[in-house]
Design a protein that fits this description.
Blueprint: H1 2-24, H2 30-52, H3 57-60, E1 79-83, E2 85-86, E3 92-96, E4 102-115, E5 118-128, E6 134-140, E7 154-158, E8 167-171
Antiparallel strand pairs: 1-8, 2-4, 3-4, 4-5, 5-6, 6-7
Length: about 210
Amino acid sequence: MGKTKNNYLLLLGILLLFTIVLTACKNYTPEQEEYIKRIEALRKQKNLSFMQDPNSPFNQDPNAVFHPLNYYDVNPDFVFKSKLTEYENKDTVTIYGTKGEERKAVRYGYLTFTYKGKQYKLNVYENDEGNGQKYYSIWFTDRTTNKETYGVGRYLKFSLNSDPNHEYIVDFNLAFNPFCAYSANYTCAIPTKEDYIDLAIEAGEKKFHD
């Protein structure tokens, strides 16, 4: 793991220098520059966590070989304010896992965002942990899927907030791959055809494997 860590630190330094050069060529506001630094710091921390956390897929599966995760450059244009609209009829739907198993989820509501004059929708699913506790999921595919990004799709974290206006931030720079992107030991939910976004979302995490 020592050699892997040294290689990782070297590559991280090269990537950081490259990012600084690219950022310098673009005209960002001070707020956007601060946002970019914050996302880059989160990515660095995730890499370290995947290396060190005993519960990470790379430490749970000896066949999963770690290298720094692949990302698009941080793009502030892929951050949107949105309002959650609950479905009047919250249907329970079948979601399949990557190992073929069926899962049940409630199509709870949706978020919308507008990019270059066109509106898009993201479904929000409600899931049961089995102990009465609920958690919420967003998964999607887009025009980059199976090309530059993971072939199953990508996820966004989502939690209900207490905002009376039901407003949320949709940040595709935080789009991430599920664990099954790194190790065959895991299974993950496959986005349905209703979860496809007809847009190349060139933000967030790319494919891990070439």
